[in-house]
Amino acid sequence: MADVKISQLTAKAAKVESTDRIPIADFNGTTYDTKYVTGAEINELKLDTSPQLGGNLDVNGNTITSASNGNIQIRPNGTGAVLIGDSSGSNAAPLRFMELSDNGTNYVGLKAADNLTGNTTYTLPTADGTSGQVLQTNGSGTLSWTARTGYTYEIGQYVSSDGGVVFHRYIDNGVQYYLVVDTTDLSTSSAWSNVASTLIGATAQSTWDGLSNSNAIVGQSGHTSSAAKLCLDSTNNSKSDWYLPSFDELNLLFNNRFNVNKTLSGNSSFGSISGATEILNNIYWTSTEVNSTTSVVLDIRFGSYANNTKSVSNYVRAVRKFSI
After folding, report:
1. Mean pLDDT calculated for residue range 91-96
2. Cα distances (angstroms) measured from residue 90 to each of 58, 145, 224, 292
3. Nearest-CA neighbor of 284 among 294, 272, 293, 296?
4. In whole numbers, what is the pLDDT of the chain averaged over residues?
5. CB within 8 A of 209, min separation 6: which ones?
6. Which end of the chain lies in a sparser environment, N or C, as judged by fewer CB atoms within 10 Å?
7. For 214-273, how does the pLDDT look when each residue is reduced to its tens digit (9 = 90+)?
8. How far is residue 265 from each of residues 252, 262, 270, 299, measured CA to CA in Å?
9. How far apart are CA 215 and CA 205, in angstroms?
10. Angle at the Cα of 135 (from 137 to 107), degrees rounded to 5?
């Protein structure tokens, strides 16, 4: 039986024979005694189908991986659980799901609060929900899908990611829809259209669908410029789907002018908006056509509507819609 020192072994370069003896230092309380483990005993670990650790496993920054696309399964016995975090310290560790290593080192993490009042187990639904639904709890940890209720944004709230100030909102089939107004006028002196005496017809006469009206206006034969084109071409606040509001949409804006102007002036809890201007006491175009020569305008001072000649110059303020 040959004695082999650990220092004499090189990974994948030296084979431990079953008859070899490996010296191991054992501290007896005063000095170290040299004891031996045989190669046979070491090889038994590889053959053991259910090995057990005698202490904590420290991977020292390395990775636990599998070969041949095999799964890594953590399977507690009986009522045991998989515990993540240091229950004896002050660090509530997160569970991190990493992106593909070729794309970087970003992750999505889940973490318990640092101070919990009790134990909570969340049970996921048995299947995916439908578009627009959200998870709700029954108060005992069982989660289920339900239609979204309530609103994320308030009337008068500036939503920077969507380019404007909310002036109307509604829910349809569990989906929240918001109308927002641009933070500044696109023009203080624009004609409704350069085509001032030709009827477009029903496609530009919706009282509620300003986007449809706007597209019909710019699609008219001979069109080159219009209030609608200013809106459709706008990329204000990094958005490219602005349009000229319809009769009803501009009326909704007037009805919530207090909330909107409070925000546009920088006097709301939403803070100041760079370059924003209030909707002042002026006459604004709508996209709703009346006949071959006139379209609807709104006098913001009094909330009154009138039919104005298409060639007359008025103010223009764009709106857009988004949903969540």
Report:
1. 78
2. 19, 34, 67, 74
3. 296
4. 86
5. 246
6. N
7. 999 999 999 999 999 999 999 999 999 999 999 999 999 999 999 999 999 999 888 889
8. 19, 5, 11, 20
9. 12
10. 115
